[in-house]
Specification:
By secondary structure, the protein is mainly alpha-helical. The protein is 41% helix and 2% strand. The longest helix is centred in the middle third of the chain and has 19 residues.
């Protein structure tokens, strides 16, 4: 939410696309600080309360203001003070203070409180990022897609209201989303649009998974955990009979192998763009029979194609459901191949025995006969 606490004079000055005078900045920022809970804030303070030491009124004002579109192509917008941005800045300043950073003098000139937090977390030498993750119970990055760095993981689950701190709710939501993706073998987001997060990827695939379960003809009551996501449910069905422990009793007349075949066929059909089986029931080959995902998939994959084969109703999403290769984790107990050793000389410095060629003992008569045969030809 963007709110302006300035009076009409400040609004006129802001409209001119320049900062207000220092007196007006003090008045506006003090009013905003009091609204944010800093009750002892005063216009007469040397520096604004709640900000790191040495931050001037003007620099603090720049940190908590933003430009709002005024539909005038000749101006960059109207400068207003954001109460939400001020609250986040004050919270970030407290986070820096808890980390022992009470001043922004160590950072480049013009660095904001939020920028100081980001630079602190990106510094690998201070150990603050690792400590922050560990305090939230994150000791490795297995809950994040392949290729995610520690800083990227931190930004994904950072509490928007408290910069520099991790939101446990966001982390739980992110972990559940990635677990649902990995249940289908999706360990990275390389097949999704650029900058997609695991939560966005899961939300993209969830409606498609609903269609797959509906095509198979099962609902969440089939699973022992009826609150699970459709992605997770689809994974359980496709891995039958190994995942039979996660299901209640199967429908009468259905085996686990048959249910797995139907689930995998439904997955293939929906990713190809078939949202239901209504189009297949109208085919001549299905006259008098019920169209099932397995039979429908056989009709789609058959050759030559049937003349009355229905067209897909949606865009193909096959690449989103493709499994990605998981990195091979090397065991620390695996012996390394020895290429050099101090117990033996290198090959070039070793002495090898010079074996004599095989010999044959002959008589004098054999020597004379050989010489006669050899020299007689000359």
């Amino acid at each position: 939410m963007v709110t302006s606490v300035s009076n009409s004079t400040t609004a006129q000055v802001a409209a001119s696309n320049s900062l207000p005078n220092i007196a007006q900045i003090r008045a506006d920022l003090t009013a905003a600080l009091i609204s944010a809970g800093v009750s002892n804030a005063s216009e007469k303070d040397l520096t604004p309360k709640g900000f790191p030491d040495g931050v001037s009124w003007t620099d603090a004002y720049r940190m908590v203001t933003k430009r709002v579109e005024d539909n005038n192509p000749k101006t960059p917008g109207t400068l207003v003070l954001s109460q939400d941005l001020l609250t986040r800045t004050l919270s970030g300043a407290q986070t820096l203070k808890n980390l022992g950073i009470t001043s922004l003098s160590r950072f480049p000139r013009g660095t904001s409180v939020m920028g100081a937090i980001d630079q602190t977390m990106q510094d690998k030498s201070n150990g603050i990022l690792a400590s922050t993750l560990a305090q939230a119970g994150i000791y490795d990055l297995t809950a994040f897609p392949t290729g995610t760095t520690a800083y990227q993981a931190f930004k994904l689950i950072e509490d928007p209201a408290n910069p520099g701190k991790i939101s446990t709710d966001t982390f739980k939501e992110y972990k559940d989303a990635y677990a649902a993706l990995t249940s289908l073998g999706i360990t990275s987001l390389q097949n999704f649009p650029r900058a997609f997060t695991a939560i966005e990827a899961k939300n993209l695939l969830e409606p498609k998974s609903d269609l797959m379960l509906k095509m198979v003809g099962v609902d969440k009551s089939l699973f022992k955990d009826s609150s699970l996501s459709s992605l997770r449910g689809l994974s359980i069905l496709s891995k039958l009979p190994n995942s039979i422990d996660e299901l209640n009793s199967l429908p009468s007349g259905t085996t686990s192998d048959q249910l797995a075949m139907q689930a995998n066929a439904a997955k293939k059909l929906v990713t190809m763009g078939y949202d239901d089986l209504s189009g297949f029931s109208k085919m001549a080959s299905f006259a008098g029979t019920t169209a099932t995902p397995v039979l429908a998939l056989a009709a789609v994959m058959g050759s030559p194609k049937a003349a009355d084969l229905p067209h897909p109703t949606s865009t193909s999403t096959e690449r989103y459901f493709q499994s990605t290769m998981a990195p091979v984790l090397k065991s620390y107990g695996t012996p390394n191949k020895i290429t050099t050793t101090i117990l033996a000389k290198p090959p070039g410095a070793r002495v090898y025995p010079n074996h004599l060629p095989p010999t044959k003992i002959v008589t004098a008569a054999q020597v004379l006969a050989f010489n006669l045969a050899y020299w007689g030809k000359k």
